[in-house]
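check these tokens.
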Amino acid sequence: MRASRTSSRVRSTLHLISAATLGLTSFALSPMPAFGLEQPAAVTPGEEQASSGGAAATALSQSSPSSPIGAEPVEPQVTDLPLQTLPAASRTTVDATVERVRWADGELVAHAVRTSVPEFAMVGVTWDQAEGLAEVTAQVRSLDDDGWSDWAALHAPDDEGPSGTEEPGARAGTQPGWVGSATGFEIAVYADKGVAPRNLEVSIIDPGTSPYDAQALAAPNASEQRSGTLRSNSRAGTFPKLPRVISREEWGADESVGDQCWDPRLGTTFKMVFVHHTAGSNDYAESESAAVVRGILAYHVVSRGWCDIGYNFLVDRYGNVYEGRSGGIRQPVRGAHSGDYNVNTTGISAMGNFDIAAPSEAMKSALVKLISWRLGTAYHGGFGRTSVEGDKFARISGHRDAMSTACPGRYIYDWLPTLRDRVRDRLGTNVTPIEARWRLLGGGKSPLGVVRIGEQGLNGGHFTAFSKGRMYASPAGVFSLYRGPILSRYKRAGEVEGVLGYPKSGMFAAGHDTGNGAMFAGGRIYWSVATRSRLLVRSPVLQRYLTEKGPRGSLGFPKTGIVDTSTGHQATFEHGTISYDKATRRTTITVP
């Protein structure tokens, strides 16, 4: 369905003029010790499964550094103007004395001039989706206090966006073009064989301004990713670091526009990257980059009816990386960038038109760092090919490898082999203890399944989320927790950021093989059918319980966690209670 249009939106009819007035040109961790292989503990049918909660689960999905205090969303002003098509008798082909619009092989089908409209900074053309519609290209020039700009082409890449089943009510359209600041425009639309699309509209967008645009750029680590040419990595053990990513909150995403994206909102794993370009202006200031991203969000959602911005990440020519579609930068969020190939892929768009200009060294460096992190933490490296929806792609591919389009532009597309080499060089032969253990267990065919959320470091260790469990590495060792009640309870306790810290074992049989348990730096979790999962933090009560042989002893499994009392704390078990008195520092066992 088409996204709700909750941002400010105006409609009016464009004034038509004769085609004869046109004069168009194209604008153009240190190593961990090895341990024995673990097997997944049995999970009783009907037990709770792994949830997405927990502090570390949040850490897995959240952006990098925190947003500026007081950052607020910026509401875009979107004006969608119906554009009437020209009668057949009034149409002409592009004048032979003018450079032809690239990819436009047809007739002028619509033309309009407006010299007084609400101030805008971005413009695009949309129309109704239709099967077999001819190729459409537009040209636009803008009017400001200094007069008319040069003509600029707005191209409509094939199938960039959601598939038809994802957003059946979405509109087709060109890429949006950045004009900076304007109060008027002239636009011409061309269609192959003169077959005009239905319900043409011109979208003009004011993305607004925010005092936090410059502050986001000045945040820690921002300069590191704008540092120009990336040096080769000569260290084989370098873990791929998450580069500074400017979050949606920081760049001012208006979360009130759009609607809930259709299922599956998340994929099952991450397989590869599609590199795109926005095909807009290359002439934007660094302080305008956040506004460009806001404009693209507004165009995708309000004008084209998508649920959210199509790309997972955007990279500007200064090397700044922006979070795109919501859902968490570490999650396999389904974007809307490559039609039928949106699931289990990541779309990264270079901001600009790279069919007419080469990307800057800062942009290329940022792409290398971002893609190295995305592929390296998922244990893909920059090598090989993968299958998506039955078709084979290189792990780093261009949009044109999947669709009939010029995207990501010839300069970036020709650079992709070098990009792959630089990603491989940056990652080197690095294999983390988690990756090594996972591959030893069988990789994607192991009991843990495929990587769902890539490896990250936190609180002195590392961890990775797989489709059927998680694996943790710390100085205590490398351990797996499989999907089930113990992992769910661990997540609810905050995972590695909670009171338990990192695991000190995998799951093991407990009691008289009637339940399971797992050891952690800060305590233990036990589970049985009768008692469910219970957390016992490190304390005199837990110490006494273990002295009494734990679940194999006379007390059985815990029925509660450790709770405070007026004199200390206690825990209740199947066959008794252990109490701790803070005044006497003694523990007492009470049996019914």
Q: What stands out?
A: Residues 209-427 form a domain with the Lysozyme-like fold (CATH 3.40.80.10). The chain is about 15% helix and 25% strand. The chain has three domains: 8-25+75-206, 209-427, 539-592.
